[in-house]
Amino acid sequence: MGGLAIGLSGSPNRAFKIVKLVGQGWREVERRSLYRAIRSLYESRLINCKENADGTTSLVLSKNGKEEIITYELEKMEIPEPEKWDRKWRIVIFDIPEELKKTRDVLRARLKQIGMAELQKSVFVNPYPCEKEVGFLTELYEVRPHVRFILAESVDNELHLKHKFELL
Predict the structure, then answer these.
(1) Intra-chain end-to-end CA distance of the chain, in Å
(2) What is the longest distance spanned by two Cα atoms in the chain?
(3) What is the mean pLDDT of the chain?
(4) Whole-model pTM?
(5) What value does the mean pLDDT take over residues 115-143?
(6) Cystine design at 37: which of 115, 116, 138, 142 (Cβ 3.0–4.6 Å)?
(7) pLDDT of residue 139
(8) Per-domain residue ranges of the chain
(9) What's the rounded Cα separation, in Å, for the pair 16 and 26?
(10) Distances (CA, A) of 48 to 110, 111, 132, 141
(11) Given a cut of 50, is residue 8 above it in pLDDT?
């Protein structure tokens, strides 16, 4: 499947065209909500889009005059494993309202897909740096206000998690 494409470069019409390239998970999200999110990002000029030769799309996030480029192919996205673990846990917690249930379910599935382990229904953990991947997903599904990212030095069931992520 081609890379995930969502972006804003010049006009909302282009953004709506790009939406057609989005993967299967988006079929669950209400179209109206998706279009509102794209229009909002377009108007705030938070995201610009660059199509790459390999079929992926780079999202360039503007923040305080700095731009950070994130490139993912959503269906193949995963958290990269560094050579050495820094002995910290990345915890994602969310409380997404019931009216966004479909979006919440898609986010939950994507967090699992990229390699996060579910501690509870709305709590996920991973031992490797993944703030960019999680940030990408929360922006993509427009749920950032409902999601928190925590960097922790220990978790009470750490032994279980170390086994799960093969860190022993």
Answers:
(1) 36
(2) 51
(3) 79
(4) 0.63
(5) 94
(6) 142
(7) 86
(8) 12-76, 89-164
(9) 13
(10) 23, 24, 16, 16
(11) no
Helix axes 31-44, 12-19, angle to 10 degrees: 140
Chosen CATH of 89-164 out of 3.40.50.10470, 1.20.140.10, 3.30.70.240, 3.40.640.10: 3.30.70.240
pLDDT score of 13: 54
How confident is the model over 24-56, as pLDDT tens digits? Answer: 455 555 666 666 666 666 565 666 667 788 887
The one-letter code for the residue type at 12 is P
Give the C-alpha separation, 168 to 152, whole Å: 18
Neighbours of 93 (CB within 10 A): 15
Total length of the chain: 168
Contact 72, 7 (CB under 8 A): no
The model's pLDDT over 140-158, given as tens digits with 9 standing for 90+, comes to: 899 999 999 999 999 999 9
- Could you give the count of Cα atoms lying within 13 Å of 157 in the half-sphere of its Cβ? 12
Hey, how many other C-beta atoms are within 10 angstroms of the C-beta on 168?
Answer: 6
Instruction: Please name which of 19, 140, 3 lies closest in space to residue 77, comparing C-alpha atoms.
Output: 3
